[in-house]
Amino acid sequence: MYGGAVEGDSNGNATCNKVTFENGTIQGGVLGGYSSSGAAGGTDAGAGNTVTISGGTLNWLVAGGWSETGEASGNTVNFNGGKLYVTDSAADGKVYGGYSLGGAVENNTVNMNGGTISGTKTPGNNDPWAVYGGLSYSESGAAGNATGNTVTFGTGSASTAGVVGSDAVYGGRSWATGSDSGNSGDVTKNKVSIGGGTVKGYVYGGRSGSEKGASGAATENEVAISGGTLTTIDVYGGYTAGNTGSGDATENKVTVSGGTFKSKTSITGGISNAEANSN
């Protein structure tokens, strides 16, 4: 389901599109705006795409804005009710404020104010769900920068039935997985705020990582916990790690002023394989 979609090589942008889902069941993905060759959203006021979920059942991914080649910026997902639940080993149960295949992601938002995001691990799917304010991902070449993306938990829950593993909540992430030594980008001023609800899994304000190349810098990313219930393994303000080198982790932070931790949790302001300063 698309609010608006641009197909082909026209370099057209997908902006100002909306999807509202209140009831029923959807087996496929839900995207506010999609472009195969241009940007999703934009920096101008009101240019972003929006998805609002207030009920029903979803079995695949949700994204405010999705770009195959360009930037994704200013997009929003409001998860106010309903259920995203993944059991299929091939399914992608992730929620993205903004997603780009290699481009920059900036100022995208996920607001979790109700409902449930969950999944069951299977032999073919050890990562059934995750929540991203913004993700730049590349399987070939470099991933883009992730800047100013946010995830906010008011109420609701994100969890995995069974063992909690690599499932996670990210304010912003840059991630390169290709075999051609592609580097990941910088992650800057991304944030996860948890004021209520239930969260199971890892939590990152910002994360940069490359499986074959170098990772970018992690700067001024934040996790703020003021309420809610957390069954988490690790909480990081900023995290960067690459294969051939890593950027610095600088001025990242985790603030805890409330909430209930249901498991032993490691909390780190900033972590890097290079330099970690002023975290």
Structure description:
- This protein is mainly beta and 279 residues long.
- Helices cover 0% and strands 54% of the residues.
- It contains no helices and 29 strands.
- The protein has strands at residues 2-6, 18-21, 25-26, 30-35, 40-41, 50-58, 62-67, 72-73, 76-86, 95-100, 105-106, 109-120, 130-138, 146-147, 150-161, 168-176, 187-188, 191-194, 198-200, 202-210, 218-219, 222-225, 229-231, 234-241, 249-250, 253-256, 260-261, 266-272, 276-277.
Q: Could you name the ranges where pLDDT drops below 50 across 5 or more consecutive residues?
A: 161-166
Largest sheet: 12 strands, parallel
Task: Tally the beta strands.
Answer: 29
Radius of gyration computed on alpha carbons: 17 Å
The amount of helix comes to under 10%
What global shape is seen? globular
Alpha carbon gap, first and last residue: 42 Å
Protein structure class: mainly beta
State mean pLDDT (0 to 100 scale). 89
Oligomer: single chain
H/I helix tally: 0
Written as H for each helix and E for each strand, in order along the chain, the element string is EEEEEEEEEEEEEEEEEEEEEEEEEEEEE
Q: What fraction strand?
A: over 45%
Keywords:
mainly beta, 0% helix, twelve-stranded parallel sheet, 279 residues
Can you summarize this structure?
This protein is an all-beta fold and 279 residues long.
Topology:
Elements: E1 2-6, E2 18-21, E3 25-26, E4 30-35, E5 40-41, E6 50-58, E7 62-67, E8 72-73, E9 76-86, E10 95-100, E11 105-106, E12 109-120, E13 130-138, E14 146-147, E15 150-161, E16 168-176, E17 187-188, E18 191-194, E19 198-200, E20 202-210, E21 218-219, E22 222-225, E23 229-231, E24 234-241, E25 249-250, E26 253-256, E27 260-261, E28 266-272, E29 276-277
Parallel strand pairs: 1-4, 2-6, 3-6, 4-7, 5-8, 6-9, 7-10, 8-11, 9-12, 10-13, 11-14, 12-15, 13-16, 14-17, 15-18, 15-19, 16-20, 17-21, 18-22, 19-23, 20-24, 21-25, 22-26, 23-27, 24-28, 25-29
